[in-house]
Design brief:
single chain; 5-stranded mixed sheet
Length: 131
């Protein structure tokens, strides 16, 4: 697999619930960031498949102002309550905080769930020029 976007597209293609990827991120990141971001998306998708009774999952990857934004939205039952210790949501929060990111969850009863993650990613250093 080459890069976060391709890995997420592969994940979506294997998902038992129809999943669509909107990729607005054309940059590679440090492998630790890419791996962590992939596992965040994978955990959010897994939670949607297991618990949401969703008929569709939308995944968005976007890079703006040196912030990688990940969003996973499902059209399921919603109503995600406060996560008990050891749950998948706790794992998501831990992964996000390891990279000084933020996690927000919107999940009104009967209206699906949206998980949004913001991870700061510094711009890559300029390419060296040969003299």
């Amino acid at each position: 697999m080459k890069g976060l976007a391709r890995a997420v597209e592969d994940l979506a293609s294997r998902c038992p619930v129809p999943a669509v990827v909107d990729n607005r991120c054309d940059r590679r990141f440090a492998s630790a960031v890419e791996c962590n971001a992939y596992f965040i998306v994978a955990e959010a998708v897994t939670n949607a498949v297991k618990h949401a009774r969703a008929s569709r999952i939308d995944i968005s990857l976007e890079l703006t102002d040196d912030v990688l934004r990940l969003r996973v939205t499902d059209d399921g039952v919603g109503g995600v309550a406060e996560a008990p210790a050891g749950s998948g949501l706790t794992g998501l929060a831990d992964r996000v905080s390891a990279f000084d990111g933020t996690l927000s969850i919107e999940s009104p009863h009967g209206a699906g769930t949206t998980i949004q993650v913001r991870i700061p990613v510094p711009a890559p250093p300029p390419a060296r020029q040969r003299v």
